[in-house]
Amino acid sequence: MEALGLAPAPSGRWEVVRKGRRCAGGTTGSRRALGEANAGRALPMAAPIATSGTIFELGFERARKKQNKEQVPPPATAPPEPPPRRNQPGKSAKRPPASDATAKPGKCRSLEEALKALDLADLQKELDKSQSMFPESPSVWVKDLAGYLNYKLQAPCSDPMLSQHPHDYPYCLVGKELRSIIRSLLGKSSGVLELFFDHCVYTMLQELDKTPGESLHGYRICIQAVLLDRPKIATMNLGKYLEVLRSHQNRPAKCLTVLWALGQAGFTDLHEGLKVWLGVMLPVLGIKALSPYAVSYLDRLLMMHPNLTKGFGMIGPKDFFPLLDFAFMPNNSLTPSLQEQLRRLYPRLKVLAFGARPETALHTYFPSFLSRAAPACPPAMKKELLTSMSQCLSLDPLSFSVWRQLYTKHLAQSSLLLNHLLESWESSSKKVRQSLQETVRSFKVTNEELAARGPNTHQDVAACDAACKELLRKMKGRGFPWSRLLLVLLIFAAGFLLHDLRTHGSFQGKAVALGEVSWDCVRDHLTSFTYSSWVYLQNTTLAITNWALAMISGH
């Protein structure tokens, strides 16, 4: 019985073929085209990059053993023969030139040393040759570039996350002349850059299957160069890469390599970086081997883009509340240190989620805040939920309507919120108090109806009813401060009497003085008393006016 296998169809899908049969437009056709080109015949259109053995292989199986090997040109004295055949477009640069094919360059001590030793003239010569042989196949050019760089830049490998290096490593080490060569070629190949990005990622993953595999600096440099100008390329197929991550959870090195490659888009564009994080990093945040990189990437992303306005609209309730749970719920899959790091990022994530117009969006967040505010939730989370719900009620009036609809299903949570509003009554605005008054009166009617039905929810209803009554009492306000006014009058009278006694020495002295006073003295006393009374009347009037204004303004 013939064995069955998977082969890529020209449309980019996979189809089942029998072993031994060749898929139309596959590798054989490409090799035949290359052979004809080397023989001097007319150049056909090169096969698309999707048919390469390194593209769209979601299983990351080992590369098949090459069937053909490059031929070494014969000595100069031998009869002339056709030029050597190129087996696979884009991979020829991984082999050394014919002059030194017998020895593979050894690894340099560092990438900096390897870049200094790179012969840019030889690189340009190889690229010119590739463009000359395949003038209508830019996919071949860029694959030759990546293969050449990765072959030549052999230096000690570091961890897949490159955590001990700057965010733009290794591209930051590339000199101006090499950058010019790379960007010039990418500019000529703009139509195939998405497929080239996939080629680099999947070739890196194949190298991770080899023992020992090559270092991947060349492919990393190409990925960063592509996403520097075209960051959206990384987010065109996030669903495909998420499936790769899910199917290879037991291979952390491969998963981290994919996350690193996709994450390079965010250092140029916050919007694309958030799209990558929400699309492939948030779904794997619970995986122990991947969560440290996911959290550290988010930290670096938000640090590099302090202006969060470019990220508005990216985070909605569906993404925000899993983040809230990861940040505040104890005993989740994050370690305490990662949870603390995520909690420090939470305020900025909240700003991104609420967006540019929170007054029109917060009512959509209110239901999830309310449902989580159970009496048994952790104190830190409870505080955050109550603060957030107060913010929703203050900024988005529709939140009151949403609360009234959810009240009977969330009595315990509503009791917590009512008591929180009671505690923060003095700091609430007049607008909130007016909207709250209507809502609390509605709740009071509902409480009476629920209490009449039976004792099933009696405890929660009683707690809500008590909070509603206290809020209504505060809404009525306090009466005129007669007690304070009487106290002021008594103090004034006592002060006036003491002043008079000090002036005349004693009651007896005062009586003698009264028999001897003249009309001028009486007039002076009356004038002084009248003035003092007038000043007191002014102060009292001012106090009453201030009290009335405070009652009207709600403060």
From TrEMBL:
Residues 72-86 have a biased composition (Pro residues). It is found in: Endoplasmic reticulum membrane. InterPro entries: TMEM214. One of its GO terms (cellular component) is Golgi apparatus. It is a multi-pass membrane protein. Keywords: Apoptosis, Endoplasmic reticulum, Glycoprotein, Membrane, Transmembrane, Transmembrane helix. The chain crosses the membrane at residues 479-498. Pfam families: TMEM214 (PF10151). One of its GO terms (biological process) is apoptotic process. Residues 64-107 are annotated as: Disordered. Coiled coil: none annotated. Its main location: endoplasmic reticulum. Belongs to the TMEM214 family. Constitutively interacts with CASP4; required for the localization of procaspase 4 to the ER. Critical mediator, in cooperation with CASP4, of endoplasmic reticulum-stress induced apoptosis. Required or the activation of CASP4 following endoplasmic reticulum stress. This is Transmembrane protein 214. It comes from Calidris pygmaea.
